[in-house]
Amino acid sequence: MGEIVPANAFLNANMGLTRGMLNAGHWLYLFTNDFQPTYASILADFTEATFGGYVPRNLANLFAAPIKMFDGHYVLPFPTQIYTVTDNTVETVFGWYIRNGGSVRLSARLAIPVPVTIGLSFAVGVELHEEAIPIVV
User: Fold this and answer.
1) pLDDT digits (tens, 9 = 90+) for 67-85
2) What gap in Å lies between CA 88 and CA 103, rounded to an integer?
């Protein structure tokens, strides 16, 4: 049996298509319910943050060109987003999700949830990876 191995050019093109999609009409949101996103997560699964100072971030043209880390592995960089809490809302940020209208495109739970307190500033980073995994045929 052989393996199907995607070429670097294929991976770079895939990341370029993803970049184009995310840079047009997509927004980054934070969620505050103690939830682990799955492949089947839908918008109703997430409780959006409400703390003072929070607003969803428009992703228009924020994702940069794909970067080849090494053969078979590309990264789509995105600038870190800084949030500063401006009121006494009591909630914990458990993760983020990216959506276009009512469709959730990507989501992740933070490694360490962030309990928000007035004056706190914290960063949220999104980094997408495309990695070749040979398929045995």
Assistant:
1) 999 999 999 988 999 999 9
2) 31
